[in-house]
Amino acid sequence: MKTRLMPVAVFLAAIICGCGHKDGRSDPYQVYAASLSQGLQISNPLLLVQETETWKSSLSEEIRKQLAGLRQDTLEDFLLKNKESVTLTDTFPLKLNIVLIPNSQIKDLFQTHDKKAYDVLKGLYPGSIGFTRVSQVGFSKDGTQALLYGVGSRGPTGGGGGITLLDWDGEVWRVTADAQIWIS
């Protein structure tokens, strides 16, 4: 099983989607959970930045090729939702030790401690290996496809971000494609 740096496949609201399906199809937290549970390197605790990442541009042709099967309506919903950040809540359907941390804490940590910020972070949250950020989840109109962006930051030269495509198989969300956007 391959390990992904991005916790996108990392998990993470009925936030703005209006979740209409009781089976979990349009519940972003079910998508976040599926992403996390399918091949990610997870720390204990998993530090998740409370505010979602934004995405303000379209996807390049190269990235779209890596996301074979991505439907236009899924992409449009993803782009629409991710113009602005929203605040995640601790409603993940996982038995993981997820700690939501405000973006302001991350900013303050790096402004105060610069290159030692990761050491300070690990001291504040023993067992953590960095922090994760996720976008809002874009859904297809029928609620059977989902798209999200995630970033994992493990140190000054240990991070990456990517987009994950998932499909609903009638019972659970399954990761069907990943596109790495950047790595350090």
Textual characterization of the structure:
This protein is α/β, with parallel strands linked by helices. Helix 5 (103-113) crosses helix 6 (117-124). Helices cover 27% and strands 26% of the residues. Strands 1, 2, 3, 4, 5, 6 and 7 form a seven-stranded mixed sheet that branches. Strand 6 and strand 7 (173-183) form a beta hairpin.
Unreliable stretches, pLDDT < 50, 5 or more residues? 1-22
Q: Fraction of residues in helices?
A: 25-40%
Shape: globular
Strand/helix succession: HHEHHEHHEEEEE
Strand content is 25-35%
Q: How many H/I helical runs?
A: 6
Structural class: alpha/beta
| Mean pLDDT reading | 82
Rg, nearest Å: 16 Å
Defining key terms:
184 residues, alpha/beta, seven-stranded mixed β-sheet, globular, disordered N terminus
Please summarize what this structure is.
The chain has 184 residues and is α/β, with parallel strands linked by helices. Helix content is 27%, strand content 26%. It has helices spanning 14-17, 28-37, 61-66, 72-81, 103-113, 117-124, and strands at residues 46-49, 98-101, 131-134, 138-139, 145-155, 158-168, 173-183.
